[in-house]
Amino acid sequence: MPDTKTVTRFAPSPTGHIHVGNLRTAVLNWAIARKAGGTFILRLDDTDPERSKDEYADAIREDLEWLGLTWDREERQSTRLDRYAAAADAMRASERLYEAFETPTELDLKRKKQLNMGKPPVYDRAALALSEQEKDRLRAERGGHWRFKLDHARIEWTDGILGPLSIDAASVSDPVLIRGDGQVLYTIASVVDDTEMGVTHVVRGSDHVTNTATQIQIIDALGGTAPAFAHHSLLTGPQGEALSKRLGTLSIRDLRVAGIEPMALVSMMARLGSSQPIELRGSMEEIVAHFDLDAFGVAPTKFNVDDLKPLTASYLAALPRAGAEAEIAALGVPEESRDAFWTVVRENIATRADIAGWWELMQNGASPEIPEDDRAFVAEALALLPPQPWTEETWGEWTAAVKAATGRKGAALFKPLRLALTGRTTGPGMGDLMPLLQKGPRV
Ligand code: GLU
Predict the structure, then answer these.
(1) CATH code for 365-443?
(2) How far apart are CA 23 and CA 141, in angstroms?
(3) Is the CB of 13 inside a 6 Å radius of any atom of ligand 1?
(4) pLDDT of the residue at 243
């Protein structure tokens, strides 16, 4: 029975391209919704008008579509500002939201003083002691921002990945929900959306654990029900180094341009950091069928971009012709040769970009560089090469004749002949390839 109540969301800020770090969050939330037959929301966290750009929102949609991570609904925070204002009003009325006036420099000074005294750098709530006159004066002078007044109790939840968590609210600064210029910040916008959109499960990076603690209290203050939270460990580089600085070069679009297959990426992200091995899947349905959030662990997760290469090659090697029809047709491979062409090529490409090189070879023949020692042998062998058309038997017949004439055998026989006909030292079975070669080598 599909559980139509399950609602998850992927909530990127359209301030840049999505990268492998975000992708993990997207895949986990998507898979939870799909597994339950629920709803997956794409939510654009675009309350920052300066940094949010439509071109990034378009790019995020395009990347998700390319990955096959379909969403059922799209929401934009910038269209919901009235909802956040209403929530803020409600919290002002219940005295959970208070105006504070410290400048960033003043806050910094306070933090340094606290640290010097060996105290945690938690906001001291000095604003709560201001009189109405003082507030009026400060408001006129510099404008105020709005903080949520945490209830100084322990905040507890059972995290879907980290297990039971307990955070002392007194160790956390009252979060700023609305900036001096009126800009609504992520913490409140996210809570209002999650509550009003009926989000039931939130999976995000473990850098959000403290946010979650404060958000649980804000949800309470607004009379909502907290979703189930799970925080996945952050990705690191292969040596355990922080990946944050490199994420700019690990955008989904860069990987796409590099020829990485979406199924390789999604297969990896649905398993990386879990106790289950990474297994290449052939479809999104298979990803969902084998997905298990309970298998994810707390340890930092090592990510090596090079691991996507063998997954991509394996995916292509098993891909039916229909999956590469666009590329095959664009090259102008005649209909009657397409099956044979793809069967020969698919196991011998690293990415789709390599398909063209094989067709080029088949149409125009190779221009091999034969090592000095083999030149006389290759010339003698080519003189024995039967005229076209070549069949599946041609390779066997030809190499037998060359063997008889020259006495060469094994690798010494086959390798230079493969090189002569293809310009490469490895590749498909020559019996299968020869019927597709339309020209002999240009030697
Ligand atoms: N826009 C936030 C981010 O990208 C969303 C975090 C969340 O999932 O709540 O970090």
Answers:
(1) 1.10.10
(2) 44
(3) yes
(4) 81
